[in-house]
Amino acid sequence: DAMVIQNPRYQVTQFGKPVTLSCSQTLNHNVMYWYQQKSSQAPKLLFHYYDKDFNNEADTPDNFQSRRPNTSFCFLDIRSPGLGDAAMYLCATSRAYNEQFFGPGTRLTVL
Amino acid sequence: GQQLNQSPQSMFIQEGEDVSMNCTSSSIFNTWLWYKQDPGEGPVLLIALYKAGELTSNGRLTAQFGTTRKDSFLNISASIPSDVGIYFCAAARRDDKIIFGKGTRLHILP
Predict the structure, then answer these.
(1) pLDDT tier, B1 (very low <50, low <70, confident <90, very high otherwise)
(2) Which of A43, A62, B1, B81 is the most exposed place for a label (fewest CB within 10 A)?
(3) Which of A99, A106, A107, A109 to mutate to test the interface with B (most CBs of B within 10 A)?
(4) Interface of A with B in 28-67 (CB under 8 A)
């Protein structure tokens, strides 16, 4: 089945220790998104790639970076995680700006 | 900027009851979407609407794209325990990424 895969599902890191979350997709969609979701809130868009073009949201902290080495994969790097970065991180894909399909998410804990 | 006002914020119902929730905006959109999110999982697309006035069903779920293009509603008939979760509306203008409402949390009382 075509899908969006996120690894790992649960990630624990230490305060200030860099962490990378990964996302892959078999849908062959050209747009990939990273969202941060805190408890009981809507997903908050951090950035997205439209093909190879990177689009950052204005209020995304510099601590968050992303890489998209090819169509299928996209990575979220958190350079120096703080306690406030503990959240669920969701990857999504779409064909152009059509409906988005989400992965299962990675829950990040910062100790 | 664009904003979606989703209501109610939460609702408590008895199993078997029908549910209705809606999403409104002061902006016009070309696409309305409804997602459901279970605890610890990513949102799952339930229904996508592309045309003003469109009424679409998916099993016990029915959603409509408002004729003004500024609103949408979702109905769930004969609720069952697995309907528990957070329902998000989302909308987009043509050639623009989607934005999300704040969600409606559905609780079902035994």
Answers:
(1) low
(2) B1
(3) A99
(4) 31, 33, 40-43, 45, 48
Distance (Å, whole) CA A12 – CA B68: 46
CB-nearest to A99 from B33, B40, B42 is B33
Looking at chain B, which residue has its C-alpha nearest residue A91? B42
Q: What is the CA radius of gyration of chain B?
A: 13
| Rounded mean pLDDT, B58-86 | 96
User: For residue range A31-75, what is the model confidence (pLDDT) as tens digits?
Assistant: 999 999 998 899 999 999 999 999 999 999 999 999 999 999 999
Q: Are β-strands B85-92 and A10-13 bridged in parallel, bridged antiparallel, or unpaired?
A: unpaired
Please report residues of B whose CB lies closer than 8 A to that of A42: 88, 100-103
Interface test with B, best of A48, A100, A106 (most B CBs within 10 A): A100
Residue showing tokens 């908050």: A44
